[in-house]
Design goal:
The protein is of the alpha+beta class. It folds into three domains: 186 residues, no CATH class; 123 residues, Alpha-Beta Plaits; 108 residues, Alpha-Beta Plaits, CATH 3.30.70. The chain contains 17 helices and 17 strands. The strands form four sheets. Strands 6, 9, 10, 11, 12, 13, 14, 15, 16 and 17 form a ten-stranded mixed β-sheet that branches. Strand 14 and strand 15 form a beta hairpin. The relative contact order is 0.10. One of its GO terms (cellular component) is mitochondrion. It is found in: Cytoplasm; Mitochondrion; Nucleus.
């Protein structure tokens, strides 16, 4: 139950007479009962009329009996709004509503001059069904929803004008009215729409839900309402990329906070005439929060890049690790797009063996989100059966925050490599045996020439923790290395024209080059190992 008191009478009378809808009147009377806003529009209008008819001496307070039936579509007759500001920019005296017929006629506006119909037609069952049809046709999996609404920026201007009018009227009674005392339009709208959407969709509204239903409203007829603010506060309206208009909601709010009340009243008339047309719902959109899948991959090909290899717009190789994994995830999760990340990367000609390299894929706006452990195991098998170039293991759903553990390991953990090395001068087993005794060898690695186009020029200190050599013949040996993450192994072997010091060539005092390189382990303890 919610009440209007005697002090609200002049506000109800004033706003009804200027073309404001019943729900906006409740907002400006600071009524906080959610259930009251959900009452049918006609009932609210009739209750306000009854409130004005009451004898002030006999009744201090009139209480509304709150019921919560479904909203009904109504059609109200349109009447033109009262006169605008006088020539001095002051609020013009609004005719009194002592004559009940005058109040009743003026209250029958088709479109509210404050909310532009948001709290009228767009609270009705027909619009709710339209939203739900859009949601259902998009075929999302969800167990709750959050509802968001984008309102035309000119609503903030009209809201400010109405607040100044009501504040002036309250001032006559010696009562203050702060802007924050008024029930915000978005809040009132969600009070009305949430229960209807919940009932129609069969799931609860939840502010923390990852599934968002959003509606974008526009009102072309009143777009000029904001124009005066550009002259009064030009620094608030600056062109921005990807913005069709400088009159964004945030820019308008910033200008309204800056402009003085007297300057506002000089430029924007109250009451403005009631618009002829309702707002239009430009977009009804659905979006599911991203789902994150992690695992480890092995790469067995020496002709497969980790990510698509494109140079000057031309594709060099037909596939990549990223694509071989993600194409199956995209299909199963029915996502719009994806973002691939991993704990480091290997070159196109480098294999990744052992227990593989940790990776994570962000699936953007997925339609399907409910996967069991068995589902993930089946998906892993599908990926592995699709190509002999890669294999994945430990495929699982993870949280966004958990991915941070993978990134932390990129620089902190160690990696193990196996390199096939060639030397120009003949070697014997004893010539390379000393490498096994070298521990914690410090390198200074200037950014390699081969990656200088995408990495900043810098000298990085890296550590070779251990080495173990395997003699093959006079010009070949295999070197097993355990290194700090981020070490450039190829450059450590051949020296990169002296940009990596020391290097295998300088240690052996001969020219050395690398023929093959394998990553044998990436020592990042993530994601958790599964029973595969």
């Amino acid at each position: 139950m919610c009440s209007l008191t005697e002090k609200d009478r002049p506000i109800v009378q004033l706003l009804l007479n200027t073309g404001t809808c019943p729900r906006c009147i409740l907002r400006f009377c600071c009524v906080g009962s959610q259930a009251l806003y959900r009452c049918p529009y006609k009932d609210l209008m009739n209750d306000l009329k009854e409130f004005l008819k009451n004898n002030q001496e006999k009744e201090d307070m009139v209480c509304f009996d709150v019921v919560d039936p479904p909203c009904k579509r109504i059609r109200l007759e349109h009447t033109e709004g009262p006169d605008e500001l006088n020539h001095n920019g002051a609020l013009q005296q609004i005719p009194s509503v002592n004559n009940e017929n005058t109040a009743m006629e003026n209250s029958a506006v088709k479109v509210c001059n404050v909310c532009l119909g948001i709290l009228q037609e767009f609270c009705e069952a027909d619009f709710v069904k339209k939203v739900c049809q859009k949601v259902n046709s998009a075929d999302y999996q969800f167990t709750s929803f959050v509802f968001s609404v984008s309102l035309p920026p000119q609503l903030s201007v009209r809201e400010r004008a109405a607040w100044l009018l009501v504040k002036q009227e309250m001032g006559k009674l010696g009562l203050p009215l702060a802007k924050d005392d008024i029930v915000q339009l978005k809040e009132a709208y969600k009070w009305i729409i949430h229960p209807q959407l919940s009932e129609e969709l069969g799931v609860p509204a939840d502010g923390k839900s990852l599934f968002e239903v959003s509606v974008v409203f526009a009102h072309p007829e009143t777009e000029e309402d904001c124009r005066f603010l550009a002259t009064a506060c030009p620094d608030c309206f600056k062109p921005a990329k990807n913005k069709q208009s400088v009159f964004t909601r945030m820019a308008v709010i910033k200008a309204l906070e800056k402009i003085k009340e007297e300057d506002f009243l000089k430029h924007f008339p109250w009451p403005p005439s009631s618009p002829k047309n309702l707002c239009v719902a430009l977009e009804i959109q659905c979006n599911n929060g991203a789902v994150f899948v992690a695992g480890r991959y092995n790469k067995y090909s020496r002709n497969l890049p980790q990510t698509p290899w494109i140079i000057d717009g031309e594709r060099k190789l037909e596939s990549s690790v990223e694509e071989l994994i993600s194409e199956h995830l995209m299909a199963e999760f029915k996502a719009d797009s994806f973002n691939f990340s991993s704990s480091g990367r290997e070159d196109v000609d480098v294999r990744t063996l052992g227990n593989g390299r940790p990776f994570a894929i962000e699936l953007v706006n997925p339609r399907r989100i409910h996967f069991t452990a068995e589902d993930m195991k089946g998906l892993q098998q599908t990926i592995n059966n699709s190509s002999d170039k890669i294999q994945v293991r430990d495929l699982q759903l993870v949280t966004r925050s958990a991915i941070g553990r993978m990134k932390e390991g990129e620089e902190e953990k160690t990696k193990t490599y196996s390199a096939l090395i060639w030397t120009d001068k003949a070697i014997q087993k004893e010539d390379i045996a000393f490498l096994d005794d070298i521990k914690e060898l410090k390198l200074d690695q200037k950014t390699p020439l081969r990656v200088l186009h995408r990495r900043p020029l810098a000298v990085r200190c890296r550590i070779i923790h251990t080495m173990r050599s395997e003699y093959i013949d006079e010009h070949h040996f295999r070197l097993h290395l355990k290194t700090q993450a981020g070490t450039y192994i190829k450059e450590f072997v051949h020296g990169d024209f002296g940009r990596t010091k020391p290097n295998i060539g300088s240690l052996l005092n001969r020219t050395a080059d690398i023929l093959e390189l394998d990553v044998e382990s990436v020592d990042v303890d993530w994601p958790p190992a599964l029973d595969n």
